[in-house]
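Chain A, query sequence.
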Amino acid sequence: MELRRTETDTYRLVITRRNACETLLLPNGSEWALPRVEIHPYQRLAEQLTGEVSRAWGVEAYCLLIPNFPTCSRDEMPKYAVMEFVRQRDDAPAEAFWLRRVAVDGCVEAKEAQLIQGAIEELETYAANEKTGQFARPGWLEELFRWTQEQIAPLGLRLTGAFQQLNASPTFSLIRLETESGSVWFKATGEPNSHELRVTAALARLFPTCTPQLLAVHPRWNGWLSAEVAGISLDQTTDFSAWEHAAQELAELQIASIGKTGELLEAGSKDLRMPRLAERIGPFLSRMSELMAAQQKRSPAPLVESEIKTLADGLKESCTLLESLRLPSTLGHIDFNPGNILVLKDRCVFLDWAESCVTNPLVTFEYLREHMARSGIGKLAAGERLAAAYLRPWTSFYSTDELRRALAFSPLIAVFAYATTNDSWSSPDLVDNPKLAGYFRSLARRMYREVIRVAERSELCLS
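Chain A, predicted structure.
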């Protein structure tokens, strides 16, 4: 874990202004070179880039894209980011200067000159609509500020100009905009998450107390503006009662979603209901059998055919049992992690619904319970206490025995739902992708262990 905290990557920065006509250079001995910053690979890239530029040179810039240069091999390609100056007419930082594009050759080393030209040419493909990506076009931040001010002016709010960019790519954006009274958030998504706008709008309408207030929609950018929620993120607290509060609020939200599955599916939520999941068992495990046979490492041992059959039987039995208990299909969240949960005194607000789904309610709870177990909160019987808080609202509809029985099978189904939430497991190229193939093999082994655990517990109960 220490390695993950201290390891950094060096990024060279192509910082532009005036529609990418000029690039910022810094002295490098007797030559000139692009600015460089050190970035932690396991933290938000755009947030670090903007923060490091401000810290090092006292200027504001925002990220346009991380370019891909086909002229370089993967091993030779240095890490680059293309950014834009916020204040287009400001002078360069001390000792730096703005280099016009026509003068690049001869002012910097040949490789950097090539990369500057390549970065600017890529920006031009977005500006000319040859590539899809509003957020790789110079000047988009100024346009966002104008649009946002138009939307919030009727609310008596005024932007200060301060911002915090958290995510950036040509088709995705997440940025916090400060006002004279609080802040607002702008988010936009592209494929494969273009449905998130529809889901977010539906949830804001159906469950306004459990989601951020939706202030405006920008259809052309597939983006939306939300009010900031004054709560504490669940991953930023060690107060176990906050986790219990979140578990109970999740159950209340799911109960409120009963009967609304049609609207949720129409908005773009994934269909992970029990019959749909059961249909995937055979094809999924057939693919896992191929991956296990292709495994070259001896450890961890691949599942053999008899173990895959045991897993298939366990999955089918679990789906059948959960279906027989007649728990309703409700709103679910495949990425239900504590960073997406804001805890307030009287309620919880749930964020980032790109991975929304309709499924058995216990599936989403299992993700919360898994994150709690990994959080290191050392409360006695923490898992049981969290389950008790979650089940409490459900006892108005089902007996405690029925709910506890369902909880015994839901961890297995939760892993299976997570594994099959998209079609990457069925990709024809999966066997040739060692990292992704290994990931799916690990999920299959995890499911097999859950099947064995349930079987052993059943034997103990019979004894």
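Residues 140-227 form a domain with the Phosphorylase Kinase; domain 1 fold (CATH 3.30.200.20). The chain is about 45% helix and 20% strand.
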